[in-house]
Amino acid sequence: MPILLFADHDNQTLADQTARTLTAAQAIGGEIDILVAGQNARAVAEAAGRLTGVRRVLIAESEALAERLAEPTAALIVSLAGDYDTIIAPAGSAGKSVLPRVAALLDVMQVSEAIEVVAPDTFKRPIYAGNAVQTVQATDATKVVTVRTAAFAPAASGDQAAPIIEAGAGEGADKSRFVENRFAASDRPELASAKIVVSGGRALGSEEKFRETILPLADKMGAAVGASRAAVDAGYAPNDWQVGQTGKVVAPDLYVACGISGAIQHLAGMKDAKVIVAINKDADAPIFQVADYGLVGDLFELVPELERAL
Ligand code: FAD
Predict the structure, then answer these.
(1) Which amino acid residue places its CA nearest to atom 36 of ligand 1?
(2) CB 199 within 8 A of CB 225
(3) pTM higher than 0.95
(4) In principle, which of 15, 67, 123, 250 could form an S-S bond with 114, CB 3.0–4.6 Å?
């Protein structure tokens, strides 16, 4: 049962999410090809070929694919789909943008954000903000699956090199146009894959206090910075720091929640962290129900104290 894995990358580096999705593909079983769609992405294809258990890497390069716009990329995948039983991708921004279009063009249902492979056609996935887990069986001839990568360990890389094959360039480039990427320059680790995350909530009270209080602790710990939606909506933190149901889903080794109450929509984004530390002045805050370590007190005293102690 051949599987096509749509790789996540930035044309230079293969994202860790691809190796994690490979672990999910291996659980499905069958020969696995990785599709690298991009531009000047040969180094990415070579890295994909070194991942263990890959049969071959398909590389498709063109200007239209450089940013993996949904239209040309989905057209490319659909043109290859006849050779595969399963098309799988990390549920990152590229996978979430491209795979629903692939599923629609193939007229099949998509299994979104799988967290476990039960059988080649059966997957577990969270619903209701992670409060329930649904088991779904895909009965379509072609399965289209996105994977919540935090639930899978990355597959290893080795010395072997799977063959790299040219796969055409896809069509549909005229329907959308890439305008620009705006990157927030940051030396901090990427939130979605960071080993440590320090997050702040509404309690911070202003953007200035958020930065003064949370950032020194995060930088001392080499952590990424996260925020609750209340903090983001109030303008204390940028949108791409939001953790939760409508933000990023993280599963770091350590998550430090400062002045966050622990609403279910926030927990949906961080409750799989290995160790959770909560700092909150309300001893009854729901965050303490998921916390491994809790500090009850004023974060404006405790966070700087913790930072000094570190
Ligand atoms: P609050 O709930 O106001 O909590 C602030 C906490 O700070 C309180 O527990 C308080 O005791 C504590 N505190 C106050 N002062 C101090 C102090 N000086 N020292 C220590 N502690 C202090 N939320 C998300 O976070 N992510 C999402 O993705 C998300 N998606 C949502 C999607 C939907 C459809 C909906 C309806 C809601 C969503 N929310 C999300 C919002 C969520 O329901 C909560 O409103 C939000 O998480 C609350 O943020 P908070 O914990 O920062 O604020």
Answers:
(1) 265
(2) yes
(3) no
(4) 123
- Report phi then psi at 256, rounded to 5: -110, 115
Give residue 134 CA to ligand 1 midpoint distance, Å.
26
- 11-65 pLDDT, tens digit per residue, is 999 999 999 999 999 999 999 999 999 999 999 999 999 999 999 999 999 888 9
Are 89 and 98 contacting, i.e. CB atoms less than 8 angstroms apart?
yes
The answer, yes or no, to whether ipTM is higher than 0.90 is yes
Render pLDDT for 132-146 as a digit per residue (tens, 0 to 9).
999 999 999 999 999
Distance 17 CA to ligand 1 centre (A): 28
Protein residues whose CB sits closer than 6 Å to any atom of ligand 1: 201-203, 228-231, 242-247, 259-261, 263, 265-266, 269, 279-282, 285, 298-300
State in Å, rounded, how far the first CA of the chain is from the last one. 52
Distance of CA 61 to the CA centre of its chain: 24
**DSSP-H helix ranges across the chain:** 16-28, 42-50, 70-80, 93-106, 207-221, 229-233, 264-270, 287-290, 299-309
Cα→Cα distances 300→81, 214, 305, Å: 55, 10, 9
Which of 131, 258, 260 has the most ligand 1 atoms within 8 A of CB, as the residue to mutate? 260
Substitution site in 246, 279, 287, 303 for ligand 1 pocket (most atoms within 8 Å of beta carbon): 246
- 185 CB contacts (<8 Å, ≥6 apart)? none
Confidence of residue 78 (pLDDT cuts 50, 70, 90): very high
Query: Nearest residue CA, atom 11 of ligand 1?
Result: 282
| C-alpha separations of 285 from 132, 278, 281 in Å | 22, 10, 8
Q: Which residue has the tokens 């329907």?
A: 175
pLDDT at 173 over 70: no
**Structure token pair of residue 71:** 């239209």
